[in-house]
Design goal:
The protein is an alpha/beta fold and 761 residues long. Helices cover 42% and strands 12% of the residues. The chain has four domains: 3-193, Hypothetical protein af1432 (Orthogonal Bundle), CATH 1.10.3210; 204-434, Rossmann fold (3-Layer(aba) Sandwich); 439-604, Rossmann fold, CATH 3.40.50.300; 668-758, no CATH class. It comes from Tautonia sociabilis.
């Protein structure tokens, strides 16, 4: 008998037979891959992925590691025995297409390898001498390679190679998810059963429609059918009507405050019901606004609120309102019907190599993917990003909805050849909708010192000022000198930001006479539904200025002294760029705004002005034969990792591509902060944890700590270390001086040394 898994402390009769594990994995992988026509490939990957476990060396390792070594000394089997190379070699022996399976099998534990270049490359693995698997059943070893499923490989060799590499990654996703789930079913059956259940798109749509009908009836009862609400209803009607169209690319161009969030969800669910699609994935550019979007969906879905899977790094794992046993498990592989996640999670997973990141990818087949604020994708990675989206639509039955508050910036055009073609607009006349929803005027103020700016803010009872850096937000807040003012930035942990936003909303709901002066970074700019009469915005990209305008007169309720509607004021100013430098992407976008502003200052947010801006910011960034749209980490091209060998299009560098594709340029370091009693308790728990820690306890700790973490760049980390306010335990930094976390500003660099409690007298 050959085994796949042992059970600690149990006799061999309770171990899992290898053939059963292979067949269970194969059936799951077949089921997953069948959604894009590759069921036979998924099945074969499952049957061959652990062929190496038929070696005597691996079986000896199992018995030794389980404590019953059968006469084999533990020293002889120290370390794990390679059991993944055998199946990879078997697949590769069947010809060039066998390499597709070979990558998946070779990497099903360590991750998709590069074709060549390092000791763990696929080429090295295929040339490696391994233990005999002569005990493997002949009927398994003799299985033929299936014919390639109906992939549409169009374009030049570069694109054809990418198509095959993407297919490899999707098949890899099916295999590793199936392997995880099959193993869990045997080793942790109780955990496995918690994955069962979940509502369909149709059931969620029915509940959403009831909520939307209730909202409309409530507005009619209040007699508050405002022009803004009428425009929102028109947007919803258009989304429902266009949902019947065939799957593909769609755009929803609606100004901020026009009801995009629920209308886009209505489109997605209607579209999924009409075309038997499986799930909706709502991707958002900023972690800071995911929670609000997920909460909007939960409120709309009522008794189906548990169906919303919130997937991001700041999630509180113990919040019963957003987490259940099933949702925690579903987050591992996107096995849910409605998922709210970040662009970083979605897009970096599309180029990842690690099994844990890739498990979810096959769930994107036959799904609706909504990209909120699609124009925020960084220009330097547009080519690989848009190519991956096109693959999902072309070969995996997905629909992609591009949501923007301005206009789609990533559609194909003569001067933007990498753009997405054949995008169908949901709003037939977006320019007219923009005019109808205009509720602000935009003024250009020019250069302002912090003293000048603070003086202007003091003259307003309710005003929001948005700047481009944490440092500037803190400095301006202190210059303002208002004890009742509020500050919001990423220097504050997620729990702290949430409390400030709730206080901000409370004051605004209390009426126009209640003071509410707020200084914020761009964390407030998208998805945080607040409504100020006046908004000041430091120079930035026109899309960011449009987002700022969406926080001004959002409901169109401002009136002049005679009771007539009046617009809110959006004031754009220049700050001291030398004193307050910002990240290159924001600085570059602000430069493009300044180029456009003189010609369009009379209507800075008009479609013509936005088009002129995107022409500079996106469409002219290709340069050097389009290389400007494909500059990954350390200036490496992502697409070149899939550049074809003329003799074999399946010579891909998966690990190199994963390293190159990073949406966030600069690495950041998480610092746990002592905000509130919960943050202080987490730090005490970390200090008390044994070394080495229990892995499960450490994972639970990390999940709980996410809401009490501030991410800092390397230079900021160095400053905090030089100030002596940080300690490190179990490779985790935490703040050991409470004065370095200001109750209004968050993490600051003014404190020196540790709290007294850390010194032994």
């Amino acid at each position: 008998m050959y085994y796949a898994h042992t059970v600690n402390g149990r006799p061999e009769k309770d171990w899992e037979p290898l053939r059963e594990h292979l067949e269970c994995t194969a059936q799951l992988a077949k089921q997953f891959a069948s959604t894009f026509g590759a069921g036979a490939w998924g099945e074969l990957a499952g049957l061959w992925h652990d062929l190496g476990k038929y070696s005597e060396a691996f079986q000896a390792y199992l018995r030794a590691s389980a404590g019953g070594d059968g006469g084999v000394h533990r020293a002889e089997v120290a370390g794990k025995v390679d059991h993944s190379t055998a199946g990879a070699q078997r697949a590769a022996s069947l010809g060039p297409l066998g390499r597709l399976l070979a990558y998946c099998i070779a990497g099903h534990h360590a991750g998709l390898p590069d074709n060549e270049g390092e000791a763990s490359s696929l080429r090295s693995r295929l040339e490696k001498s391994i233990a005999s698997i002569g005990a493997a059943p002949p009927e398994l070893l003799g299985l033929p390679l299936p014919s390639l499923w109906g992939l549409r490989c169009v374009g030049n060799n570069h694109r054809r190679a990418f198509t095959l590499a993407f297919a490899t990654r999707m098949l890899f996703s099916c295999l590793v998810d199936a392997d995880y789930l099959a193993t869990e079913k045997f080793l942790a059956p109780e955990r496995s059963r918690k994955r069962e259940g979940g509502a369909s798109c149709e059931a969620i749509l029915d509940r959403l429609n009831r909520h939307l009908d209730e909202l409309q009836r409530e507005k009619q009862r209040r007699g508050g059918d405002t022009p803004v609400n009428r425009r929102r209803r028109e947007v919803l009607d258009a989304c429902r009507a266009k949902a019947a169209l065939e799957p593909g690319f769609f755009s929803l161009d609606v100004p901020t405050g026009g009801g995009k969030t629920l209308s886009s969800l209505a489109f997605a669910l209607e579209h999924a019901k009409k075309h038997q699609l499986r799930r909706v994935v709502y991707a958002i550019p900023f972690t800071s606004i995911i929670e609000q979007t997920a909460n909007v969906f939960r409120e709309a879905l009522g008794d189906l609120a548990d169906e919303v899977l919130e997937h991001h790094s700041s999630l509180d794992p113990d919040d019963p309102n957003v987490q259940s046993d099933r949702s925690r498990l579903a987050a591992e592989n996107f096995d849910a019907t409605l998922i709210v996640t970040t662009n970083v999670q979605l897009f970096e997973s599309l180029f990842a190599c690690r099994p844990s990141r890739c498990r979810k990818l096959h769930r994107l087949a036959q799904s609706v993917i909504i990209l909120d604020e699609a124009q925020t994708l960084p220009p330097r990675l547009l080519a690989p990003t848009l190519t991956a989206l096109d693959e999902l639509v072309t070969n995996y039955g997905a629909t992609v909805l591009l949501c923007t508050a301005t206009q789609p910036a990533i559609e194909h055009r003569k001067d933007f050849p990498i753009g997405i073609a054949n995008v169908r607009p949901i709003i037939d006349d977006p320019a007219q909708l923009h005019r109808a929803l205009r509720r602000t005027t935009v003024e250009i103020l020019g250069q302002q010192t912090d003293e000048d700016l603070a003086g202007r803010l003091r003259q307003e009872t309710q005003v929001l000022c948005i700047v481009n850096s944490r440092r500037h937000a803190a400095a301006l807040f202190e210059t303002l000198g208002d004890p009742d003012a509020l500050h919001l930035s990423a220097s504050m942990c997620a729990e702290h930001r949430g409390q400030v936003i709730e206080e901000m909303r409370r004051r605004l709901r209390a009426g126009p006479g209640v003071p509410c002066r707020v200084v914020s970074t761009q964390v407030i700019e998208a998805g945080v539904d607040v409504d100020f009469p006046v908004v000041y915005r430091a120079a930035a990209g026109l899309d960011s200025i449009a987002q700022a305008a969406g926080r001004c007169n959002r409901e169109g309720l401002l009136r002049d002294k005679d009771g007539r509607p009046r617009p809110g004021r959006v004031v754009v100013f220049d700050d001291d760029a030398e004193a307050y430098p910002t990240v290159p992407l924001i600085a570059k976008a602000a430069g493009h705004y300044r180029e456009v502003a003189p010609e369009h200052r009379d209507d800075l947010l008009s479609p013509r002005a936005i088009e002129a801006y995107f022409n500079l910011h996106y469409w002219q960034q290709g340069g050097d034969g389009g290389r400007g749209w494909d500059r990954g980490a350390e200036d490496h091209s992502v697409l070149d990792c899939f550049a074809p060998d003329p003799k074999n299009l399946l010579h891909a560098q998966f690990r190199s591509a994963a390293s190159a594709y990073r949406l966030i340029d600069d690495g950041q370091f998480p610092v746990i902060v002592p905000f509130d009693s919960a943050g202080r308790l987490l730090i005490e728990q970390l200090e008390a944890m044994p070394d080495p820690p229990d892995p499960k306890l450490l994972r639970d700790f990390d999940r709980k700590a996410q809401r009490f973490v501030v991410s800092v760049f390397e230079r900021e980390l160095r400053t905090l270390l030089q100030n002596g306010v940080l300690l490190e335990r179990l490779d985790r930094f935490y703040l050991a001086n409470s004065k370095a976390y200001d109750e209004r500003l968050g993490l600051c660099d003014k404190a020196i040394g540790l709290d007294e409690s850390y010194y032994i007298l």
